């Protein structure tokens, strides 16, 4: 089974590309969605212990956690040390399920794919990218987002040009959704020709 890594900086259109991959029947593991699930119970106590006042009633308050991290950016690594191992366990379980079901390919959608080194655990990588001005406009339109918060988030992410340089495939989402979908369609054809090695090497 092929293991494909899907990534891109904030606001680049990962969700659009992931939706098209699902349209073609590929299973996609959404790391951000898994983190939301973990914040809603499984890791709430651990995060509260590390960041007092950020969780209550067994749920992490993401606004309070974000404020704590923006006040002390060096502590992002403390949060990652709590969250990343649990997410990796869920990724392994996801891949195992789809391998056993006979899937030809499964996708790991991971915002910090390259930053975390998870690209080395994949057969190929897809980077979703867009013009920087379009990216900023998209992100700043989100509720609760500010220029300062966006700049902090971007500072933690590998520059887009570096991601593009390391990608096996690039999807440019600067245009219409139809153009994005056409690029994903073309990539799927190419991916199907790749040898599948990563699952047996790193995940089985």
Could you explain the architecture of this structure?
The structure is a single chain. This protein is of the alpha/beta class and 204 residues long. It has one domain (2-197): P-loop containing nucleotide triphosphate hydrolases (Rossmann fold, 3-Layer(aba) Sandwich), CATH 3.40.50.300. Helices cover 53% and strands 14% of the residues. The protein has 10 helices and 7 strands. The chain has helices at residues 14-23, 31-39, 44-50, 62-71, 76-100, 132-140, 147-156, 160-166, 177-191, 198-203; strands at 2-7, 27-30, 55-56, 59-60, 105-109, 124-129, 169-172. The strands form 2 sheets. The protein has a 5-stranded parallel sheet, with helices on both faces. Strand 3 (55-56) and strand 4 form a beta hairpin. Helix 1 (14-23) crosses helix 9 (177-191) and helix 2 crosses helix 5 (76-100). It is globular.
């Amino acid at each position: 089974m092929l293991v494909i890594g899907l990534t891109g900086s904030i606001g680049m259109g990962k969700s659009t590309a992931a939706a098209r991959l699902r349209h073609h029947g590929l299973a996609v593991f959404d790391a951000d969605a898994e983190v939301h699930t973990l914040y809603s119970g499984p890791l709430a106590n651990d995060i509260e212990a590390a960041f007092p006042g950020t969780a209550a009633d067994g749920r992490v308050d993401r606004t309070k956690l974000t404020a704590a991290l923006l006040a002390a950016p060096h502590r992002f690594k403390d949060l990652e040390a709590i969250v990343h191992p649990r997410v990796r366990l869920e990724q392994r379980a996801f891949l195992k399920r789809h391998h056993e079901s006979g899937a030809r390919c499964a996708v790991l959608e991971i915002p910090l794919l390259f930053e975390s080194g998870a690209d080395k655990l994949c057969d190929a990588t897809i980077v979703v990218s867009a013009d920087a001005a379009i990216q900023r406009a998209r992100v700043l339109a989100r509720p609760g987002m500010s220029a300062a918060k966006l700049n902090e988030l971007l500072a933690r992410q590998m520059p887009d040009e570096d991601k593009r340089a390391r990608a096996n495939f690039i999807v440019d989402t600067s245009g219409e959704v139809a153009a994005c979908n056409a690029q994903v369609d073309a990539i799927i054809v190419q991916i199907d020709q790749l040898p599948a090695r990563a699952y047996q090497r790193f995940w089985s």
